[in-house]
Amino acid sequence: MAPRLAVLSFVVVVLALAPSRRARAAEAKAGATAAKLVSAKAATAAAKAAPKPPRPRVGPLPAAEATMTHAPFEAGDCGTCHQKEDPKSPGPVKSAGNELCFGCHDELQTAMSLPYKHAPTVDSCTNCHNPHNSKQRSLLVAQQQDLCFACHQDIQAIATNAKVKHAALTTGAGCTNCHNPHGSAVEKLLVELPFDLCVKCHSKDGVPDGRGSTLTNFKSWLETNKVWHAPVKAKDCSACHRTHGSDEFRLLVARYPAKFYSEYNPQNYELCFTCHNTAAISTPQTTTLTGFRDGARNLHYLHVNQEHGRTCRACHEVHASKQDHHVRDGVPYGKTGWMLKLNFTKTATGGQCAKTCHGVKAYTNTLPTAQKR
Question: How far is the CA of 51 from the CAs of 48, 96, 114, 191, in angstroms?
């Protein structure tokens, strides 16, 4: 009896000394806040230490070559920036660094006060802009993407060599569709929070992908389908998609079948199995791995694990759905994209599908008492 009392006494002491759940939560929150501050400081330091492009020419181009001219230079007001008004010998600029530019462009000074700063901008505005005239918009010293790739060669390699390209890099404003080239309140110099940025762009009807298939209007889709997949709920598009280019369908970070049918091979479902248990597909009989079973017969195994198996997309939405477990209402089928309805109905002990790939079939995932383990 004495040893048992000693153990109980020890447990009581440990519990008394252990921090409360509220204390642990407060500590975790404080740690997360500190981590964010450290991350912001580290990002700013990294920006300052980032590679810089070679110094570009910032003298005036021949007027015939320029398509854009800086207003003071066009007006002949050299003294706005230089110590003398003489166009042939204006002398040095009135002040060093970016302060001269900020004298007129106070909105850029505001941008440079944000937590994340672009290293070339911190160094000098003339890393990217010609203060006199230019062949490029915004007085850039080179075409925008070439200018970005001069420093970001890792991104250039992805964008150039990827089998699946992201149109955001080459349409509209190019890199500045997503990034602010001066400063931002969001990491990676993004112009908005990543999720908001993705949804804002992918909120149009009838936009085709590179293969001619129509992309989803995610603004309306997420508004009408309230059961969000965990990465979407976490607002983390990058959990599944690469933003600059990928070798996988739909810019995915790993393999995922693009079609309704596919031979079962765990490698084909690399993306899904990043989070989901492979055993739920590879085990013929189970009472614990999935609720989609008839007794102990694993219906995921039945549908997927075969030479001509139905892929995850045959039954599940990958972003959001109206039903639990992301069961979809219907799936585009065949080359015409005809919508095959699942007609799935959930029941207290399982569910049923009707008039889909087969006639009405129901399943129950409860077991007789004698079969339970």
Answer: 9, 21, 20, 22
CB 52 within 8 A of CB 123: yes
CA dihedral 329, 335, 338, 341 (to 10 degrees): -30
Integer-rounded Cα radius of gyration of the chain = 30
Q: Residue 71 pLDDT > 90, yes or no?
A: yes
Domain end (from 176, 191, 206): 191
Structural domain ending residue among the three candidates 151, 168, 191: 191
The answer to the question of residue 108 being in a domain is yes
Q: Is residue 170 part of a domain?
A: yes
**Quick one: which of 143, 183, 166 has its CA closest to 249?**
166
What domain count does the chain have?
2
Higher pLDDT, 334 or 278: 278
Return the H-helix or E-strand segment holding 136. none
Residues 73-87, mean pLDDT to the nearest whole number: 95
Residue predicted with more confidence, 52 or 83:
83
Q: Which domain holds residue 177?
A: 97-191
Of the CA atoms within 13 Å of residue 181, those in its CB half-sphere come to: 22
**Residue 143 resides in a domain:** yes
Proportion of the chain above pLDDT 70, given as a percent: 83
